[in-house]
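Quick one: structure tokens for this chain, please?
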Amino acid sequence: MDIDDAPKPKGEETKGKQIVVILVGAPGSGKSTFCEQVMGSSTRPWVRICQDTIGNGKAGTKAQCLKSAASALKDGKSVFIDRCNLDREQRAEFVKLSDPNADVHAIVLDLPAMLCISRSVKRSGHEGKLQGGKAAAVVNRMLQKKELPKLSEGFTRITFCQNESDVQAALNTYSALGPSDTLPNGSFGQKNPDAKIQPGIMRFFKKAEVPANAVSDANSIQSSVSPQIIEEKDPSYKGPDNISSFSGNAGMELKEGENLAVSGGDVSLNDAPTLAFPSISTSDFQFNLERASDIIVEKVEEYVNKLGNARLVLVDLSHRSKILSLVKTKAAQKNIDSNKFFTFVGDITQLYSEGGLRCNVIANAANWRLKPRGGGVNAAIFNAAGPALEVATKEQAISLHPGKAVVVPLPSTSPLFSRQKVTHVIHVLGPNMNQQRPNCLNNDYIKGCQILGDAYTSLFEGFASIIRTQGKLAQGSNENLESNPSGPQEDIEGVSTKHSLNNDQKSKRDSEHDNDRSKRCKGLQDEVGTDIPDSRTRKVDKYNDKIDGSMTKAWGSWAQALYDIAMHPESHKDVLEISDDVVVLNDLYPKAKRHLLVVPRSEGLNCLADVRKEHLQLLRTMHDVGLKWAEKFLQEDASLIFRLGYHSAPSMRQLHIHVISQDFDSKHLKKKKHWNSFNTAFFLNSVDVIEEVSNHGRATLRDDESLLSMELRCHRCRSAHPNIPRLKSHISNCRAPFPPSLLQNFCLVLAPCNAVIDP
């Protein structure tokens, strides 16, 4: 684009037309930089009109810009209109500044959206205060409304710049303009005249609130925006390792095509479960970065497709992180799906609030004691999570071996849960090459690489167990369950089925009179309490007759109530606790002073027969929640002792754990089956179930109904009693120690003062 240096008419050799250059481009496209570079090298007198500074260094109005531009033209100066000017309406009044002595040009900085966002969020001290995470929202919104300028609007010349080479060419052209030089009219450089927006800006985030003063020159952008996800594929822009960089306030580095996050408001990238993890052992443990990056990429490649739609995010605090750079390069060489694995620069404890990245699971590079000591990631996570994480961690493990990981469900009271949407922390311990730290391997990288590989395997397996229990990977349909032809039952598992009960039924349910019809039709609360099988509800097959061991049970309509509560707890006012994983409720007909049910919210888990090794983390979560409630009750009454467990053959659909105090002081404990359902092998300790599933992939069920008709024996001294009243009288005074089988393996939960139970 050569300058038109045709001979000038006499009298115009020293003075050419003034030029109004309207810059068109999103924030971060380089408008201000363009002006500064031209003005710093051109001999033509220029004035830059910027709405961000028009009011004595502060943001002003469009009217002020128009007035200043007219004044500069009157003084014989050319003008840069440094605003976004992305739609025709915003440009119209500036185009009208043209007259016989002034041409109006447009320079369109139509650069890749990813590049504009990256520049915007990284910069600091911006005149319009548009920087950090909120910049992404503004840029996305503006690009959706972009209208490329046309000569028909009144421009004499339009220059389109779609990559850095185009920008440099335009800089050279305008920098070379002398006071008397002119440029040819026309439109130059546009590759796709019909393009309105850049490709890929088609999917939506949830609405995010952007402060009204986020940017003064937002071309009348509304304060409430719906930012879009950018998928810029322009080959002309090559970021480092062909991976574009993005940083919110916390910072993010994403491959091209990866979702961009916006800080502020209720924002999430999408609903995919996400694990954010630091590089294990490469900081304080001084593991070689090259070898560590090889192992990370190897393990990510192994697991990334096994995890369905889940995502893995490698996190580091520094933009200059060598481990991130190495991993990005090697991941690109392996063609690992950038939608499922990418890197993020920022604080792992503030990914959601500062960077807009929602990660339901984060990994902690822990120490072997699992204590909130030292510095780095470990101290940061424990500090951000508060005391709740330390307590929850102690419930899972007291130490950790190198190469191992432990999954810790994060209590809802933790700030990480409430503020950052983190539901689980996975502690993982890698190999140590630092002689100042325990278990140093003294540069034995054969063993070290094996341990580090095992650590990432344990980490990703733990993450897989979490998302499986949350139903994120399940693709199959639920089993069609038959209705019970005998009609509704009046009460199940201590859960009132109020929608199917009338007052007469309630009176009958509470009656002491039991006949054969009431036993068969009133349900199992009066007959057995909770969870005891009725022969009407079972098919001829035993639960374990199927090859896969799954339950072959026809559930009556009455037996669906617990399932309904688990799936829709918000509609039941008697629920004590609701989380993403479980629901907690009182047994409506408790068999002791304290009797709770902890019910998972996952589909496809009707009973223990359906549990497999992939549900292990869910079992632990249920156990943890039960422990939490038991400990709460112990604070209120230290004399109580609790046991957590399952009935081998439940009567209702939906797996659940009983949290029951061992006083058995309840008017609802009336029958032999009530007692035996909790004090024979029919009742399986939660800790034993977890151990069996961990070791063998399933629990051993003891659903022999003869267990329910055994003679009545005290659960402490094992003395026999002829009936329930005599048994109740005895247990109210018995102080014998519990059987060794219960005292071992933490089957009983009691206050510290009762740790030793004397005769």
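The chain is about 30% helix and 15% strand.
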